[in-house]
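re the bet — no i am not wrong, look at it urself. input seq straight from the record:
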Amino acid sequence: MPKTHKTNKRLYLPMMSAAFALGAAPALLTFSVDPYQMFSSKDRPTAINDIAEKAHYPLWKLAKFVRGSHDTIILGDSRARALRDKYWHELNMPTALNLAYGGGTIPEIYSTFSLIKSDPAIKNLVVGVQLRSFDEDHKGGMNRVPEAVELVRHKLEYLKNWNVFQTTLKVFEKENEEAISQYGSLVSKANAGSLGREGKTSLSKLLEPDVCFGCDMPSDLKPLAYQKTRTKFSYSGHHRYNSAGWGYTIPDYNWDDFRRAYQIDTLIPNLPKKHATQVRKNAKSDWRGFEFSQNYWKHFEEMGEWAKSENRNLIFVIPPTITDLQNTIQENGLGKINHQLRVKLAELGTVVDLDYPTGLTQDASRFNDAYHFDSKVARQIVGQVVPLITKNKDALKMVIKREKDVKCHVSDQAQRIQVSQAIGLSEGQNCRVWSMQNDR
């Protein structure tokens, strides 16, 4: 055998081993760093955990869901996410789990509900909800949950996923920033491969919380395809209008009597710049061409049917926004549907409503921006939901201690207002509770 052939043969195995090691390095680093803690629990500072969570909210949350371990689940968007696990645990509810996502959409709420609804351990479902999410154009019907489910179920795919690897590098760099600072950043600008129909997408775009985290997934886990069968609300007859979203003509539910209950008489003086910009710009995009989705509403009806048939508690929380933002609903002629949504939700479960003109929503200092309330308000909201889902005496004692700006529950039944034949309304401090008559 020629000498060159012998040399090549001797080099083949080391070269193949080196190539394999190089190819496996990303997966090995992902396994070691494990940014979503899929293989082991890691005690990391919040600033580091936030890197992974904000890169893919559903993946971060669903990696922590363990069937049979949680009695209370919270779903929704960033404002429901603000009702953090620890606020429930502080009130003697140690198995509550928040599965609400930053930038969350109704498709994501429904996909998560579909994933967890068969778990017999779940007794309470708390859903953060808002009118603007019922338009299918809201965030383009984004659904990041199917991919998260795929990566949680199939750990090898998690180790191979390019975007998870990019997050791994960011977490690794943050954890070791002092040691590697002299060598420069490990995370270079890059273009990911083809993702669905988007072609090449920049890494920064991929890691934004409001876009798909990678679109190639098994067909049975792809985002749900919603039909674009929407019907705008049109007024007809004596203060009634037809709604394909609810499937029949809905009565006013005393809209003329309740109109004043939503009217903003005074806007907030000296509104912070950030809040003012959101009111001026975001509100236009929220309500321009708004159309209520029949498909989305059917998802909520399914939740209501599930809660009734399985004897579970279903609580809808309508979180507070500043009064100036609420006013844009009235300005765009959506006051009536905003009112009717509350009544229709109350036919499915109890509604804790904080999004109407109050001293709280008039105080911009209690809000980080026009949409998001501070942590003190979040703790109080959790405290007002707890009495609706538990009779634990120790928990209820702690709830009373936590009460301050928000108090939803009133003992005087004379304060209960009849809204429809079936639905009543109780008003507390900066909070209203809508519920079926036999629920109170």
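see?? The beta strands are 72-75, 96-98, 124-128, 234-236, 240-242, 313-318, 350-353, 417-418, 423-427, 432-436. told u. also The chain has 18 helices and ten strands. so pay up
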